[in-house]
Structures are given as C-alpha cells and as structure tokens.
Known about the structure:
This protein is an alpha+beta fold. It has helices at 11-22, 27-50, 102-108, 160-164, 166-180, 184-208, and strands spanning 57-63, 70-72, 77-87, 93-96, 98-99, 115-116, 120-125, 128-132, 134-135, 140-147, 210-211, 214-215. The chain contains six helices and twelve strands. A hairpin with a 2-residue loop joins strand 7 and strand 8 (128-132). Helix 1 (11-22) packs across helix 5 (166-180).
Amino acid sequence: MPTPGATAMTFSSLIEDIMRYVETGGDDSEAANIQMPRIVNNTERQLATQLKIQGYIGTYTSQMQTNQAVISKPQAWRSTVSINFGSGPSRNRRTTLRLRSLEYIRAMFPNQLSLGEPQFYADYDLDHWWVSPTPSDAFPFEAQVYMLPPLLSEANQTNYLTQYAPNLLLFACLGNMEAFLRNDSRIAVWQAQAKEVYDGLNVEDLRRMVDRGQERSTD
C-alpha cells in the first residue's frame, strides 16, 4: 500500500518531477510544459496496453440483444479476460463463452439467423464482440476486461498508477519526454529503469493472481 502524505505521487507532482529530471531550459521549457500533460496521458495509455495486472481488470455487465450477434464493449476496453452469461428460468446458470477467431465462428455457424445460447465470442472490432450462436434471448452477461483507468489531469490527481506503480509511470514518462526533446542518449536510461520496475510489478502481481483456476502466465 502507498504511504499517504507529501511523498505520494499526484499528477502535479509527477509533472514537477519530470521537469526536474529532464532539466530543460529556454524554448525547450515552454514546449515541454505545453506537451507534458499529453505525454503523461499517452504514457498511461501505453502502459494500460502493456500491463496485464489485477489493477487494470474491471467488470462490465450488460445484456445481449435477441437476434443480434454483435454486442458492445465498454468504452475503456483494452482486452478481454473472460465473458459469461446467465441462462435458465432465473438466469442464474452461468456459462462461460470460449474465445475463438471470427473466421472460426463464422465457419462453425454460417447461418446468422440460427438462434440459441451463445457458445463462442470473438473480437469483431475495437468496440464490439461477436457471439455465436446468435442470442435467442436478452441474456445478461458479465465480462472481465482490462480497462484504461481514468487518465490523470489537474482535475484527477491520482489513479491506480500513481498509487501502486508511481516509479513505473515516472520512468516511462521520462523516456517519452526525452524522446520529445530529442535527448536520444537518455531515452535508453529511462527505458531500462521502467523495464526493471515493469518486470518486477508483473512478477509480483502474477504470483498472487489466479485467473479462473489457472495460474496466470506472461506468455
């Protein structure tokens, strides 16, 4: 757990730390100040794509639509852990959908008008899943997904990264800032620091996470 108080990272303190580390001056300082919030947010998006740890998993609940094979993903979706839905008279019988490619599903169920309880899902596009067979009812479903946490800003000073992986966020931001400033010799330094923290964070988290009865793997 992070220690509350003056040493805790916030959006404002992160900006200040980055500026101190890169030691910009003159026109570079003005350009860096303008660009810095974008660099922080882009780094957050980058880490959300790379990290597969517990703090990024969220639960999304909704309902399928009868006669509709395409269902919407949550807005902050990054990747899917699992999807299950409720069936039976009380909708309390949980069935886990199996992930397959869209091509496989369409080969198995070429007739989209053939309705039933879904068995498989695939990524249809960035914003939608495809399930087959096409739902015969408005089945409630629950998806465990990796999600982008609320991005840092003046109005949102802390999030998961500032609380549990502040050094990773700092080092990753520094690498991206050095790239912006074209300080090529410093980029590798911060990337190495970020990788060390990243590897340790994943190992620590993977050791204590059990994903639906199977030990999580970095493969």
